[in-house]
Fold:
Amino acid sequence: MNFEKIVFGFFITLAATLNFGFTLGNIADPQLHNVWELAAAIAVSLIATVLKFGDRTQLGAVHLATSLVADLQLIASAVVWTVYAQVLQADPLGAHQMSTVVSLSAGALLANVISVVLMISESVMLRR
Structure:
């Protein structure tokens, strides 16, 4: 077993599952979406991105691109949430505001799913 591939797969999968957990639920209900889960999704996604920098293959470039998209979407989601909650003093967030936050996170989820599919297809294509 390649320990590097295990760590790589772990963080890609963890990023996807944390993002899924945050996105799951009624898109407009702020009580179903935890800010700490979003923060964890961002942190793990950034770690997964750093792990993808060493790969110099074409598939590695696509992995990095999907990870950068996920990072951008998740960070945008956190920024929007912060602006609504701190700058505009919306407490609790309204349905429209929470829908925007969760929609951005859902875009990151799609990028994470693509990354996981690429990882699985790369594993299937490997010959012993």
